[in-house]
Design goal:
three-stranded antiparallel beta sheet; about 120 residues; alpha+beta
Length: about 120
């Protein structure tokens, strides 16, 4: 290197290193966005379970339009429940951004005579 600037080779090496760094940052950023979306969907599913569990423990029915509104961000989202005596198992199933089927369950003890 002379005293006034960089040679062409040095400049090309710097540009190549910057390109590699940018490519790695792009891949990592995409993975982080995907993981964030998974976390958001899990939180949304927990919200659905909590609202249904709260309604079941009070002995009231959940409005279908409220369930549809909360399930909207979950692709292929569906809520099912199974009853065994006073215990009710609520399950939310959906597809995550990777395309995998995911389920979350919660068991609640409902009031006698709950819907």
């Amino acid at each position: 290197m002379n005293g006034r600037g960089f040679t062409l080779i040095e400049t090309m090496i710097c540009v190549a290193l910057m390109g590699i760094t940018a490519a790695l940052a792009g891949v990592t950023g995409a993975q982080m966005r995907m993981n964030a979306q998974v976390e958001i969907q899990q939180a949304q599913a927990q919200l659905v379970l909590d609202s249904h569990a709260s309604a079941a423990s009070r002995g009231v029915a959940v409005a279908p339009e409220a369930t549809a509104r909360v399930l909207a961000p979950l692709p292929d989202g569906v809520v099912t429940w199974a009853r065994a005596g006073s215990a009710r198992t609520l399950t939310v199933a959906w597809r995550d951004p990777h395309g995998r089927a995911v389920t979350r369950s919660l068991t609640v003890f409902a009031k006698p005579g709950a819907p």
